[in-house]
Amino acid sequence: MGDPGGIGAEVIVKSLADASLRKKAHFRILGTQAAIDAAAHRAGIEPFWWRAQAHTHAAETAHSHDVVLHDYEPGGIEHASVATRSGGELSFRFVEDAIAHALTPREHPLHADAVVTAPINKAAWAKAGHKRFPGHTELLAERCKSERFGMMFHANAGTHAGENAHALNVILASAHVPLMDVRNVLTIGRVVETIDLGHQACKALGIHHPRVAVCGLNPHAGEGGILGDEDERIIAPAIRIAKENGIDASGPHPGDTIFIAAVHGKYDLVVAMYHDQGLIPVKLLARDRAVNMTVGLPIVRTSPDHGTAFDIAGKNAADPGSMTSAIELAIKLVAAKHA
């Protein structure tokens, strides 16, 4: 459910209120009844879930219900719409338990085929004593014991990019890293690994021969070394290695133009060097539709591409589009994985 003070409960309730979506899978909500009930009441949605107290036999055996709420706070606690220690601790527990469910054997009553996470607040996690994890991605990787992992975003670009826009796929070579440190964490190996992870993820999405465009780090991809040497010293060799490994990769391309080429269908994947280089175009072109998928894990995990939005929490103003897309993509990835 994400942070109880954010819009997680609202976008979950609004997404799963669609009966046609509920028919596609069995859903387990790890959250609090107080937040879910309040969000449904504000949206005028009749309850469609069955509640059980978390970590009880009833929660483990509620298989006959399409949607089961595992309630972590019977009786309910009101949370302010700001980063709080209690919100951080609860949202951390939700994710920890969701990962544990996904890692259980398929025959286990709590096994989950996929995890879809609503937004958490990093400051709240820090207040709760979990500051060494800057986000879901790093926690998922550690708990899954994954050394190769990455943040990738998938979205239909929508009308902002033109009527014939193609799906936009973007993977990050570095994620939650201060901008001043990006040049120090990028290595040839890291860029090669990111290209490979994105290539494999595209195949999971049904793209059999992905065309990969790799961004440069500097303006104009370094302009032949005039604006920095990282593009020629790190990124270009990584692209050559990826091509030797059979990946259709090109670049380094200037980051300010390559995304338009991608949404016009020239590329299936863009490899961005840092967080905002990749996320600004995604959120500009595919707001309320983009999905974050963690690649390189043994489990399927997706999430909306937005944050907790404390400023509109409790106002019934959140658009559930990105959460709905995250749920649908998780189902698609699970089906492909099992096939």
Overall description:
The chain is of the alpha/beta class. It folds into 2 domains: 8-146, Isopropylmalate Dehydrogenase (3-Layer(aba) Sandwich); 150-284, Isopropylmalate Dehydrogenase, CATH 3.40.718. The chain is 39% helix and 16% strand. It has helices at 8-16, 19-22, 33-43, 57-60, 85-103, 122-127, 136-143, 182-185, 188-204, 230-244, 258-263, 275-285, 321-338, and strands at 27-31, 50-53, 67-71, 114-116, 150-156, 167-172, 211-215, 248-253, 269-272, 291-295, 300-304. A hairpin with a 4-residue loop joins strand 10 and strand 11 (300-304). The radius of gyration is 20 Å and the shape is globular. The mean pLDDT is 93.
Based on DSSP secondary structure assignment, what is the total number of beta strands?
Answer: 11
Instruction: Using the alpha-carbon principal axes, give the shape.
Output: globular
CATH superfamily of the largest domain: Isopropylmalate Dehydrogenase
Elements, N to C (H/E): HHEHEHEHEHHEEHHEHEHEHEEH
How many alpha or pi helices?
Answer: 13
Strand order of the largest sheet: 4-11-10-5-6-9-7-8
Named CATH topology of the largest domain: Isopropylmalate Dehydrogenase
Low-pLDDT segments: none
Helical residue percent band: 25-40%
* Structural class assignment: alpha/beta
Give the overall pLDDT as a whole number. Answer: 93
**Major sheet attributes:** 8 strands, mixed
As for the number of domains, it is 2
Q: How much strand content do the residues show?
A: 15-25%
| Distance, first to last CA | 29 Å
CATH A-level architecture of the largest domain: 3-Layer(aba) Sandwich
Q: What top-tier CATH class of the largest domain fits best?
A: Alpha Beta
